[in-house]
Amino acid sequence: MKSAPVIQNVRGVKIYPPNHKRVQKLLANESAPEIHGDKVWYSSYFIMDYLEANPPEPKTTILDIGCGWGALSIFCVKKYQARVTGVDADKHVFPLLQLHAKLNNVNVGSKVSRYEDLTPEFLAKQKLIVGGDICFWDELVDPLHALIKNALAAGVERIVIADPGRPPFLRLARRCRRLHHGKLRQVKVTAPRKNDGYLLIIENFD
Ligand SMILES: C[S@@+](CC[C@H](N)C(=O)[O-])C[C@H]1O[C@@H](n2cnc3c(N)ncnc32)[C@H](O)[C@@H]1O
Question: Which pTM was predicted?
């Protein structure tokens, strides 16, 4: 007999596997995510490890763009008491984000928006922007670059984007190295599984 899927604990964040009965029950009543927000993607773990080594100020404001199920948002609330807003173009990810927020006993703000529609006024309220596996199509490169430019102009202090190394992400990274002093670092995790990839780190020097 197959054993029931168990809740994982990754870096202090409790995460339902996609085939867990709570996820399946929710998806029986709500529409499923449509733009790959159908699980927690491991690029988020690269950013968690980066933040452990380079922690933000406690209680700071953080935007998790392309947040999906919100594991990274929840990590930032739990670890740094941050005020986090998860942003995603797909409204169908938010019931799953809230399911996880409840499981982890935290509050995470949510906003349905495409990257390019985030206003300078809204960006100006954020100190840090993070995003795991969010640049996976060619057509996402320009909107993400526009967001990065607007965020830097609005005074956001740091932007950290992680990726397995997909070509659109590497194009964005090359552009940010050239235009915004972006740094590209190769990274790996061993838990919950072995994976390697990249971090793009952009600091605001203005
Ligand atoms: C591969 S998933 C990654 C989810 C999450 N960051 C993680 O690591 O588990 C990509 C997420 O980006 C969102 N997304 C895709 N295009 C977007 C856009 N133009 N603006 C905002 N979010 C977008 C998707 O809905 C999806 O939730």
Answer: 0.96
Atom 26 (ligand 1): residue with closest C-alpha?
A: 37
Which ligand 1 atom sits closest to the C-alpha of 162? 8
Q: What is the amino acid identity at position 145?
A: H
- Strands 128-132 and 158-163, bridge-based pairing: parallel
The ligand 1 atom at the shortest distance from the C-alpha of residue 93 is 27
CATH of the domain at 130: 3.40.50.150
Domain count, the chain: 1
pLDDT in tens, the chain (206 residues): 667 789 999 999 999 999 999 998 888 877 888 787 778 999 999 999 999 999 999 999 999 999 999 999 999 999 999 999 999 999 999 999 999 999 999 999 999 999 999 999 999 999 999 999 999 999 999 999 999 999 999 999 999 999 999 999 999 999 999 999 999 999 999 999 999 999 999 999 87
2 lies in some domain:
no
